[in-house]
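Table S2 (continued). Query chain:
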Amino acid sequence: MNICRKCGAVLRDGDKYCSKCGTRSPSSKARERKENAQRRKQEKKITFQTKPENSRGYRENFEEGENRSRALLVTVTILVVMMLAVAAFAMFYFMNLNSKKSGSDYSSAIQIIGQSEAQESSVPAAPETGQADVLPEGSAENGNQGADQEAVVVTETQAAEALPESEAQTEEAAPESEAQESETAQSGTPETEASQVPETEAAETETEAAPETERSTPSASDVIDPAQIQSILDSESTASSAEVYIYDLKHDSEAALNDCTQPMYASALITVPILYTAASKVDAGEMTLDDPILYVTTIGGRGEMTTEQRDGLEFPLSFYLQTMTNYSDNNCINILIDYIGLDSINAVCQEAGYTSVNLERGLVAGDPGGLDNYVSAKDITMMVKDLYSGAFSSIGTDFMRTYFHISEGDSLPTLAGLAPSLQDASAVLNQNGHGMTRYNETAVIEDNGALYILTIMLYGDSGMVYSPAVTDVAEYVSTAMAG
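Corresponding output:
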């Protein structure tokens, strides 16, 4: 018995999706792997290796483990203490070394203190000698003037011998530093430059080098030649109407073949205005991605949900949007058109400035009764740009990267379209549609540093005939955009 991992509902054998929440059910192989893992876990036995009971020094395994744990703890503690001691010694050593380099030689001061203490023990008046030279000559305190003067001379001599060591070092170092500065000013000594300047220069170098990590690519308006695209179409197709529109997202530039604002037959590219309208309405609070929608089979053809086994079940709006774009699912397209409404789709798109959008029907098999769906190549491109660039919070870049790509190949096996020329691209997010008289495809392409949207809409002959021309146009555009 299969159980839905999300809501816990019972799944029937062969169901790929939960009938209640629409979550994809695990495959039979995944279930078998899980059951085998659980069985192995249950059959696994834990054994303890112990010495015979009569053996001397017998200890159970858990007691030995505790002893080892204590020994390990003691060892780690000793190592930490030793490391701290070594670190403290190293810090003291380097502090003393730095103090000597900076001219603060504490050994001289220590010598002076020791000599002063020795003088205090031999000459009682030694501490007063610092003031003996400023007392009046007739002062009573200057009675032992001879001894005091001798002590003063001794003290001053000792101070002159001890204290000036650091000062002498400073005085000796000054001319050297001045000489070094003059030499640096004249010859630019590499050692001095390496010790003083590198931090600023390194920071500036990193700042300047950072933009170079992203490869520079040319602008679409500079490198795309519409005449070259027209030449490809003329040699490989018999299209009576053609629109090819390229929008460069990195440079906010465009290139186009013919007037790409004129309505063309949309075929399955109506998925773009449907997705755009759903994102707009969800952001406006008019619907939510969790809204339940009844599934009804209306048409066969391409897609994931082409059978009647799910008829009568409800799935959330998000499920239909994902399946529509990920499989170009015909039934999901028609269900969403019925749920949102043709008039609502047209109104939302036209109010946003996409005036070429005019949907008159869903997808049908056979005679459409004179009704059709229309949209221009530029409007398709710019709607894809809004969705991919994050103009909506509900359906944005993450959704597009995950679902805006036909999983069952880029199209039918005999209809390659853009795919062959973009096999080495970093990413190709596409939708396409075809019929007896048309071929349409739009794609977000990341290739060799370039990021652009390419939309091709052709009319006048079978989609099968147009496939090689579409492949060659995409190859020309990708080569030009990659620089």
